[in-house]
């Protein structure tokens, strides 16, 4: 029906004394200093993108300064509303350090705007709590990042929110799980830890069959350099910027980018109230990470493919999961929507639990540690570490395909042959 009201996607919960705020008039706008044409490549945008800093008309610092002020002076009390929208008044609401990092990430993501958070889980939790209310239904993948799994399995039901888990990357599974109250289609690609690849366009199309539903994808393993969910129709792209975008194991940060102004405004308002904002110091480091992201992702991807090929032919490895290998079940999907395949390599040690433990305990150049996406190579055993008993039961892991012999390797930017020699000597002990 032509005159049917538009389905409500963002709860109208942000009110002032004058009523519900209007995103069209209240949304903060960033202006890009550069003039990028349609042919400007992502690696150029990553280095050059810069938002125009307010109040600096004559000159602009090449590197935005760290804005440590918690509060900002105001010339006149009648200018408070204008400062809230176009300037700064209190750093929890906005400061130019965080806005500079958010603007650079958004330039790569291709959205109407990006928000930055204190960590990846801050981005995920704030976004979901903004968009959901009691009685809503979420469809999510299994396996999924363990922090997300714990949030959806244990916390959201406490607020009367229903969650259905489906096999990761199974579009028909999402379609079959739709209910009248479905509000969120949540995806992850490549998924953590088994590296399933979600067909982003098919996922977005499935979500659009439910008029009020919103599609969200955690794109951390790909980064906005290798894949751009928003361009394929997904409503929201989430990044744990702690990982590839930061890239140096020295910050915690997260981001939420969207192609919908109403969502951007709603999540931004909720962020102000929850207070899980990014610190200016971490925003400074995050922006620096954006500048080298293309170079690092190319090296991560080169090394990742070379090591995956090595492991696939090793007699002590029974299975390798890497989107760049023809043996990967979603290899064709990955080729279609990724410019390269990243640095995450997951594999099964033939000897199972003990073999996997021996391997990760025996590496010398590679570091045994959780997290991923940094310049150094990190290895971990999901069944006892990132997806261990503190977060998931053994039954939950088995349902998600996380076996006891599974090993997750975040390949860094070292020399690939050196990393292979390290894996060779460790595998000799298995």
UniProtKB/TrEMBL annotation:
Its EC number is 4.4.1.1. InterPro entries: Cys/Met-Metab_PyrdxlP-dep_enz, Cys_met_metab_PP, PyrdxlP-dep_Trfase, PyrdxlP-dep_Trfase_major, PyrdxlP-dep_Trfase_small. Residues 19-40 have a biased composition (Basic and acidic residues). The modification N6-(pyridoxal phosphate)lysine is found at residue 243. Its cofactor is pyridoxal 5'-phosphate. GO terms for biological process: transsulfuration. It comes from the Eukaryota. GO terms for molecular function: carbon-sulfur lyase activity; pyridoxal phosphate binding. Residues 1-40 are annotated as: Disordered. It is an enzyme of class 4 (lyase). One of its GO terms (cellular component) is cytoplasm. Pfam families: Cys_Met_Meta_PP (PF01053). Keywords: Lyase, Pyridoxal phosphate. Pathway: Amino-acid biosynthesis; L-cysteine biosynthesis; L-cysteine from L-homocysteine and L-serine: step 2/2. SUPFAM superfamilies: PLP-dependent transferases (SSF53383). Belongs to the trans-sulfuration enzymes family. This is cystathionine gamma-lyase. It comes from Patiria miniata.
């Amino acid at each position: 029906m032509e005159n049917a009201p538009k389905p409500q996607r963002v709860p109208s919960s942000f009110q002032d004394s004058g009523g519900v705020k209007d995103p069209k008039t209240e949304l903060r706008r960033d202006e890009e200093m550069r003039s990028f044409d349609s042919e400007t490549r992502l690696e150029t945008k990553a280095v050059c993108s810069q938002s125009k800093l307010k109040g600096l008309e004559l000159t602009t610092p090449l590197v935005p300064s760290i804005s440590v002020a918690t509060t900002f002076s105001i010339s006149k009390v009648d200018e408070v509303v204008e400062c809230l929208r176009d300037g700064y008044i209190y750093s929890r609401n906005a400061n130019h350090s965080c806005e500079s990092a958010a603007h650079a990430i958004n330039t790569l993501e291709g959205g109407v705007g990006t928000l930055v958070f204190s960590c990846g889980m801050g981005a995920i939790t704030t976004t979901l709590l903004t968009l959901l209310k009691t009685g809503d239904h979420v469809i999510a993948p299994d396996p999924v990042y363990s922090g997300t799994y714990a949030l959806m399995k244990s916390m959201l039901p406490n607020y009367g929110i229903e969650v259905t888990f489906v096999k990761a990357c199974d579009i028909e599974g999402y379609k079959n799980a739709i209910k009248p109250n479905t509000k969120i289609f949540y995806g992850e690609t490549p998924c953590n830890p088994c590296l399933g690849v979600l067909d982003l366009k098919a996922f977005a199309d499935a979500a659009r069959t439910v008029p009020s539903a919103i599609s969200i994808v955690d794109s951390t393993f790909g980064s906005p350099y290798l894949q751009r969910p928003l361009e394929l129709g997904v409503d929201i792209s989430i990044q744990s910027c702690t990982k590839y975008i930061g890239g140096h194991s020295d910050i915690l940060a997260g981001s939420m980018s969207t192609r919908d102004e109403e969502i951007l405004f709603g999540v931004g308002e909720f962020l102000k109230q929850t207070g899980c904002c990014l610190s200016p110091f971490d925003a400074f480091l995050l922006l620096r990470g954006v500048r080298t992201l293309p170079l690092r992702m190319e090296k991560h991807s080169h090394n990742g493919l070379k090591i995956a090929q090595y492991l696939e032919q090793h007699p002590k490895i029974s299975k390798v999961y890497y989107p760049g290998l023809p043996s990967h079940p979603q290899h064709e999907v990955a080729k279609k929507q990724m410019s390269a395949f990243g640095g995450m390599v997951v594999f099964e040690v033939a000897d199972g639990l003990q073999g996997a433990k021996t391997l990760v305990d025996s590496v010398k150049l590679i570091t045994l540690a959780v997290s991923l996406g940094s310049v150094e190579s990190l290895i971990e055993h999901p069944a006892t570490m990132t997806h261990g008993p503190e977060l998931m039961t053994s039954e939950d892991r088995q349902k998600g395909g996380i076996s006891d012999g599974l090993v997750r390797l975040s390949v860094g930017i070292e020399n690939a042959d050196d990393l292979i020699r390290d894996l060779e000597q460790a595998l000799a002990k298995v």
